[in-house]
């Protein structure tokens, strides 16, 4: 029997928790267990997303392959890894796999789902009679308040602190249904912050432009590190009574295990913050380029040829002489900019 088969059978209840083998770099990636609720969620999300992409293609409308890959690999793939890989096999006997699980569901998976832009896909793929109510629901007052970055950041922080510093986490280790609910809570809390920033601008106030979003993402990166720091430096052992009873003989000291988990939380939180900030900056640059292009088109439309003033001498050849242009809008609008430009004219 291979180590992977042994672990899967252990997770199914045929062996005691203390018989789990010590995880090694070679065996750890090969150990998996089935999580039916998580698999159902991944199947539903992936099926709906695939239906939307297929519907757009049938109408001849393109949808970026990169967005589909981000949604499937980084989004849904992270959910699978967090709930069915060796992290899920060992989360009931070691704290650090559970901590990594929670960070993946809270930060990494929402980033992947948001990069897939599922909200825009849904609004484009759904029939108009269905897309209208969905759009109104997404832009409702309650959703806008919850999705505001400062509010959602506090919700993410409160969610993680509630998990680790109340009986919630230890109870979830005993109750499988509550454990699944905790997974869903972390995923929704993280998505509530990332989705408005990267997808639907309608969920944010009009003054929340790209510079403000970049500042909010930077601030959120600092906030996301708080739970890991608190876990790593806490003097009390989280779910200590549970892990004392279920830790294998080869397990490290409970405090060392918790410090390892807290360090992993801080590291992953900061690693996720960097690409998220980069995505916001890329969107910022694209928005500036689009604004500049629109302004250029407006100026080209306003700089129309003006008729030449009559004067002595032979009439100019219309095919060789360039016509005089009317003054642009910034010299004729009567404002401060126009006055300054008029003074600078020779």
Q: Note the run of SSEs as H and E.
A: HHHHHHHHHHHHHHHH
| General form | elongated
Beta content comes to under 5%
Helix coverage percent of residues? over 70%
Number of domains: 2
The N- and C-terminal alpha carbons lie at a distance of: 90 Å
Q: What radius of gyration results from the CA coordinates?
A: 28 Å
Largest sheet: none
Overall mean pLDDT stands at: 79
- What's the total number of strands? 0
Instruction: Extract low-pLDDT stretches.
Output: 1-18
- Helix segment tally: 16
What does this structure look like?
- The structure is a single chain.
- By secondary structure, this protein is mainly α.
- It folds into two domains: 32-297, no CATH class; 310-344, no CATH class.
- The protein has helices at 3-11, 36-58, 65-84, 86-90, 95-115, 118-125, 128-138, 141-147, 149-164, 168-174, 176-198, 210-233, 240-246, 254-302, 329-332, 336-344.
- The longest helix is centred in the C-terminal third of the chain and has 49 residues, at 254-302.
A few lines on this structure:
The chain contains 16 helices and no strands. The protein is mostly helical and about 350 residues long.
Question: Notable features of this structure?
Answer:
346 residues
SSE inventory with pairings:
Elements: H1 3-11, H2 36-58, H3 65-84, H4 86-90, H5 95-115, H6 118-125, H7 128-138, H8 141-147, H9 149-164, H10 168-174, H11 176-198, H12 210-233, H13 240-246, H14 254-302, H15 329-332, H16 336-344
């Amino acid at each position: 029997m291979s180590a992977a088969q042994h672990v899967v059978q252990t997770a199914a209840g045929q062996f005691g928790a203390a018989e789990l083998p010590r995880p090694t770099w070679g065996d750890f990636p090969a150990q998996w267990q089935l999580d039916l609720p998580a698999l159902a969620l991944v199947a539903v999300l992936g099926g709906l997303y695939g239906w939307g992409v297929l519907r757009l293609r049938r109408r001849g409308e393109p949808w970026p392959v990169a967005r589909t890959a981000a949604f499937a690999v980084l989004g849904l793939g992270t959910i699978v890894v967090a709930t069915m890989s060796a992290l899920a096999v060992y989360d009931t006997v070691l704290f650090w796999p559970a901590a990594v699980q929670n960070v993946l569901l809270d930060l990494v998976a929402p980033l992947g789902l948001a990069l897939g832009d599922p909200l825009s896909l849904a609004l484009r793929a759904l029939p108009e009679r269905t897309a209208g109510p969905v759009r109104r629901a997404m832009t409702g007052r309650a959703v806008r308040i919850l999705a505001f970055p400062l509010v959602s950041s506090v919700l993410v922080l409160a969610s993680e602190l509630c998990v680790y510093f109340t009986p919630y986490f230890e109870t979830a280790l005993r109750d499988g249904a509550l454990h699944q609910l905790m997974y869903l809570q972390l995923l929704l809390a993280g998505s509530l912050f990332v989705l408005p920033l990267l997808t639907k601008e309608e969920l944010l106030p009009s003054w929340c432009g790209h510079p403000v979003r970049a500042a909010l993402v930077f601030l959120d990166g600092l906030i996301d590190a708080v739970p890991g720091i608190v876990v790593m430096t806490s003097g009390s052992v989280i779910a200590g009574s549970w892990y004392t009873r279920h830790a294998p003989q080869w397990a490290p000291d409970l405090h060392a295990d918790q410090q390892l988990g807290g360090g992993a939380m801080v590291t992953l939180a900061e690693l996720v913050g960097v690409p998220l900030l980069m995505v916001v900056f890329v969107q910022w640059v694209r928005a500036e380029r689009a604004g500049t292009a629109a302004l250029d088109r407006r100026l080209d439309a306003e700089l129309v040829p003006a008729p030449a003033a009559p004067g002595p001498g032979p009439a100019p050849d219309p095919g060789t002489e360039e016509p005089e242009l009317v003054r642009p809008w910034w010299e004729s609008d009567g404002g401060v900019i126009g006055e300054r430009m008029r003074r600078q004219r020779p």
